[in-house]
Each structure stands twice: as structure tokens, then as C-alpha cells.
Specification:
four-stranded mixed beta sheet, alpha/beta, Translation Initiation Factor IF3, rod-shaped, 24% strand, Ubiquitin-like (UB roll), 2 domains
Length: 211
């Protein structure tokens, strides 16, 4: 047996002598798979210098693998790491407006929002009302709806403007093909013939015969 039970890992799987059921289904490399009395399965693992690891305790009978438990744990951690790497992380970028944002500031933030959406991030845009400026909440809603309209080629509205405390928030998520908007703005090559006149081939005037 290669592995000794340790307190820090004993709850991950039942192994070796901790498997108390009368029989188990044995799987593994270089072993004859089938249902065996647990004592016999344990002896098979010992003969190979390996461990008997319970991998499916709810099956009837439970499924156990004959393997090196240390290597088994390593493979499990490796699979978990790969699964986490494949998980898409949702990034949310925040853009803040005031209720009376001017056009220059608006266009600046609009440009940043396009970049965020093209990178696949969500955009959380909000208007912050300071003090008595809450009286301009209708103006803030109009601004956010304009923002969503100007980003229609890049994003879809996930949440319409909603007042939360002193902030009115809109959530935008990127479209599946955020670069489509870029393509729409590029100039298409023209197939029309050139408007420049074509020069006719020059003709040489005949030379008069000498007298």
C-alpha cells in the first residue's frame, strides 16, 4: 500500500481499510474489473503496491479504483484547475455620469464603453445624484437611454435604468460579435467605374508629300 491516511485528506475519499462495505466494483489499469468482496479487492491493491480508492460511493456496489492515491489526487487537482481555466470570467466595467454631463465628457466615456464591450466586458453605467440633484432623475434616465442607443451596435440592454439609492443604473452586456460595429464603419470598396475620362489614343497627322 502506497498511501497512509492523513487527517488533512482523509475526508476527500475513503481508501483502503476505511472502506467498510462488504463488496465493491473494482476498476483500474492492469486489473480484472468486476465485483469483488472488499477484502479481496484490498488484497489486490496491496499485491500491486497501490491503494484501493472509493470513487463512486453512491453506486451499488460502490466503485473503487486501484491506483496510487497520491497520483490520483494530483490528477483530480489538475482536472479542477483546467475546469477553472475554462470558466469564463465576467468582467464588469463601471462608467459614471453626472446628471448634467456635457457632450465632451459623454463622448469620451462612450468611446471607453465601446472598448470595454469589444473586449467582452459588461458595462455598468450609472448617473450619480449628489444632494438635491436627485430632482434631475428624469434627465439621468434620458442620458442612460441615449447611452444604450449609441451603443446598440456593441451591446444589448441587460437591465433598463433603475434608481438604486443615489444612483440610476443601466447594465449593458456585449453582443456575441462586438467587432461587427467596426466592420460597419469601414469603407466598402467601390465597384463603380472611375469617373475620370479616358484619353483617346492620339492620331498622327499625315505628312504632305514633298514637291
Amino acid at each position: 500500500m502506497r498511501y497512509n491516511n492523513r487527517r488533512d485528506t482523509r475526508d476527500l475519499h475513503r481508501i483502503n481499510d476505511r472502506i467498510r462495505v462488504p463488496e465493491v466494483r473494482v476498476v483500474g489499469d492492469d486489473v480484472e474489473q468486476g465485483v469483488y468482496p472488499t477484502r479481496e479487492a484490498l488484497q489486490m491493491a496491496r499485491d500491486l503496491g497501490l491503494d484501493l480508492v472509493e470513487i463512486s460511493p453512491t453506486a451499488k456496489p460502490p466503485v473503487c479504483r486501484i491506483t496510487d492515491y497520491q497520483k490520483f489526487l494530483y490528477q483530480q487537482k489538475k482536472k479542477l484547475k483546467e475546469q477553472k481555466a475554462r470558466t469564463v470570467k465576467v468582467v464588469v466595467k463601471e462608467i459614471r455620469f453626472g446628471p448634467q454631463t456635457d457632450d465632451h465628457d459623454y463622448n469620451f466615456k462612450l468611446k471607453h464603453a465601446k472598448g470595454f464591450l469589444e473586449d467582452g466586458s459588461k458595462v455598468k453605467a450609472y448617473v450619480f445624484f449628489r444632494g438635491r440633484s436627485i430632482i434631475f432623475k428624469d434627465q439621468g434616465e434620458v442620458l442612460l437611454l441615449r447611452f444604450a442607443r449609441d451603443l446598440a451596435d456593441y451591446a444589448k440592454v441587460e437591465q433598463l435604468p433603475q434608481l438604486e439609492g443615489k444612483r440610476m443604473i443601466i447594465m449593458l452586456s456585449p453582443k456575441k460579435n462586438p467587432t461587427a460595429a467596426k466592420k460597419n464603419t469601414q469603407k466598402k470598396p467601390s465597384n463603380e467605374p472611375s469617373s475620370q475620362p479616358t484619353k483617346a489614343p492620339s492620331e498622327t497627322a499625315p505628312t504632305a508629300p514633298e514637291e
